Amino acid sequence: MPTAVVLLPAMLLCAVVAAVAANGLTVKPGCQASCGGVDIPYPFGIGAGCFRPGFEIGCDSGKPSLPGTAAGSVGIPVLSLSVMPRPEARVMLPVAFQCFNSTGDSIDYSWGTVDFNPVGVYRISNASNELVVLGCNTVIYTNSGPPGRSKYSYYSGCVAYCNDSRSAQDGACAGIGCCRVDIPPGLTGNWMRLGSGSGEWSHANQEFSPCDYAFIVEKGYYVFKVDHLTKMPRTQTMPMRLDWAIRDTDINSAGSMYSCAQVASRKDYTCVSSHSVCVDSANGPGYYCNCTKGYEGNPYLHEGCKNINECERPEEFPCNGKCDDIDGSYNCVCRKGYQSNGDPKENPCTPSFSRTAKLALGLSFGLSIMIAAVLTTFIKLERTKRKELFRKNGGNILQNVKVITIYTKDELDTITKKCSELLGRGSFGYVYKGTLRDKTIVAVKASIQVTEKTKEDFAKEVEIQARMIHRNILKLLGCCLEVDVPMLVYKFAARGSLEEVLHVKKLEPLSLDLRLDIAIGSAEGLRYMHCGTTEPILHGDVKPGNILLDETFTPKISDFGLSKLPTQEYYKTNCVVGPFAFLDPVFKQTRLLTPKSDVYSFGAVLVELITRKKNDHEQERLKKFCKLYTEHGSARAMFDKDIVTSEDIFMLEEIGKLATDCLKQVSDDRPDMTEVVEQLVVLRRSRRHRITREISDPEDTSTTNTPKRT
């Protein structure tokens, strides 16, 4: 849904990494630990013997899912799973809708029906989610089982009304065009009921709101925009949080589920780790497990709860003296020569002075007061300066955005060890290596200079980046605003950029399969930006240097310093967008940045990927590559010799043909990123099928399954 044009900050260097408790076992031995970058802690698991009944996780195509249904699609996409301290699963669910024609008749609908795991371990979290309704002159409510006085027991809904196209306002969701309401506990599924009030409201000639929408979404995520009433995609999905619990049925109690008091003496008691404790579920019947105080990890596995070293976490476990870790707790005593008026965990340790020391202290007391006064003044000035920088850089806006962490200047100094390890220079300044408190390695980079006029735009851009969730897009972790130029914190990419891998590090071998996987992942990331987000985003600077690779060579689109949110279908700028070696010639002439501009740049990346030669600023190599295809139907003479074999030459020619399609001089003749992804996936599937066939029947040389070139 396009909105006003804004400029996204530079290079988003963050990969999604699920939290694993320090020193704690989380995965059942011998089982798959993660899927698609999401950790799978037991009782969840992938494959037979790896999960507790009701907690199976699918991992088709490298993407985790719950075995349920959502609006007709099998499998519910999983964003994250947590065991402690709160049992929770974060998933993506479709939006329900009903659309009308000009006479007010319903022409299309989806109730957004959701059926979670039939074992019933999940409940929709009433504490973390809310129901949102969009539309004009409509009433929508959700319902779920089991049946009570009526067919469904649990209801929650609200009414959205409009007088005309000018009634609704951006950010206002209180009944005019948008309403939101809390949901009750105990929801085991979801089925939206879409109506039109008492029947007196008509949707005829309501072009300013042709559809009604309803969805349950995690609190704080959704912000209403008026143009959502007309431009919300019918395929839109929203994140939701699920509570889960062990909900085993007690056959001796008329089918009720075990509580902690009932299950502790049973052989199938789930809290098996030493130092674990049972907790009754607050959302529906059942229970879950936690590690006891002083321990963390996975209470569902033997020896899964491990001792916390409190002395390594002074922010959580203070000690004003000498700290000594003990099993399940820690001791804190004042050092020799010091004493505390009470527990040194809470009270400071002060020197135990002799009479001589006291006299010496008196002589120096006056000087100490002077020094303290100077230091106090300096500290006050420094605090005032930091507060002003925080305000100027949009801190008062960003502090209300829950999906991003705002670090103080002191915290940033700790993360980077006061900028002691330089990684390189980015678009706007230096990039430093750092380490978060949970041992996550990050890159910290300067953003753009912010002014009073641009701080709201900057805050909006940072929020949009933080909400981007895709395995091929680096996710923003946080920022520091108490500095002259805001510093952005990203996940560190272990293998550097595709440009470094191709031309600097010269890794051997860099197989055709690996290059094809890198091409598909990069294309998936661009497709997500163009059509998978709430607001389509143009990158504007696609090149190998902005495609980062993690330790498994999974590509991550990065460096969004030139990215744009387009108005309608293009963005006009007088600035140079991207390097000349990858720059769309149509943009050079018109200064109009479109999705097909990114497609052209991606085509140039494909050429560099299969030739392993840098493109020149005049694009002479690209012109020669396309000319060979025009005249001879192939550019095999330019292919990287390391991957040219008789078996692979056809595959290389097909990739090269796709690259020439992306490099068409007329924008409308180029495919979009969805088509590019589909063609690359077909090529990979064909290649894998051929390899599998050759292994099973080495003498079978048929090519019936090889895609034909068009």
Describe the structure.
It contains 13 helices and 34 strands. It is of the alpha+beta class and 710 residues long. The chain folds into five domains: 211 residues, no CATH class; 48 residues, no CATH class; 41 residues, Laminin (Ribbon); 87 residues, 2-Layer Sandwich (Phosphorylase Kinase, domain 1), CATH 3.30.200; 199 residues, Transferase(Phosphotransferase), domain 1 (Orthogonal Bundle), CATH 1.10.510.10. The protein has a nine-stranded antiparallel beta sheet, with no helix packed on it. The protein has a six-stranded mixed beta sheet with strand order 25-29-30-28-27-26. The N terminus and C terminus are likely disordered.
Q: Which sequence of strands runs across the widest sheet?
A: 9-16-5-4-3-8-14-11-12
Computed CA radius of gyration, to the nearest angstrom: 29 Å
Give the number of DSSP strands. 34
Continuous helix count: 13
Largest sheet, if any?
9 strands, antiparallel
Give the end-to-end Cα distance, rounded to a whole number of Å: 33 Å
In terms of DSSP E residues, the strand content is 15-25%
